[in-house]
């Protein structure tokens, strides 16, 4: 095994570790118990998609190493989505069409969340993000959507505050938000 092979294998381990942390953030109990995210296959996929999108936005806004990591993270996301669908019983004949649909959902959300997060001004940004969350993620009332929006913006801010070295080491340590400490 060459030095390059060893470095790539080590880097993939860090990306896999980062992916595991992204999944953990998307599975926080507060999302399902208090913020209206349905605890279903699609609810969990949409929650994971959202945290992936927030993480990818941060990684892609940084240097070349993190941009490459963003692509590897996306590759793992789709490989794990494929694996999850197979485990859920989607057969080989339906899998390509289902994966195409799931990719369409993800990239549609990427565009919608990106546009909302790019809104000018805090109020406009909060309102635009709340609308997208109500459409894509939460089944809650207006107060629940507002709390979910606050939560998502806090996660985004926490991710943006992380140093490049933290991501490169395979971590995304997001502190408890909205009283999660009792639930974790």
Specify the helix fraction band: over 70%
Largest β sheet strand count, sense and barrel closure: none
Low-confidence regions: 180-184
**Can you write the helix and strand succession as a string?**
HHHHHHHH
N/C terminus separation: 41 Å
Let me know the average pLDDT.
Answer: 88
What integer value in Å does the Rg equal?
Answer: 17 Å
- The portion of residues forming beta strands comes to under 5%
Total strand segments: 0
Name its key features.
single chain; 184 residues; mainly alpha; globular; disordered C terminus
Can you offer a commentary on this structure?
By secondary structure, the chain is mostly helical. It has one domain (8-166). Helices cover 74% and strands 0% of the residues. It has eight helices and no strands. Helix 1 packs across helix 4 (64-87) and helix 3 (41-60) packs parallel to helix 7 (142-161). Mean pLDDT is 88; it is low at 180-184.
Question: What would a concise description of this structure say?
Answer:
By secondary structure, the protein is mainly α.
Topology diagram in text:
Layout: H1 3-26, H2 29-33, H3 41-60, H4 64-87, H5 95-117, H6 122-136, H7 142-161, H8 164-168
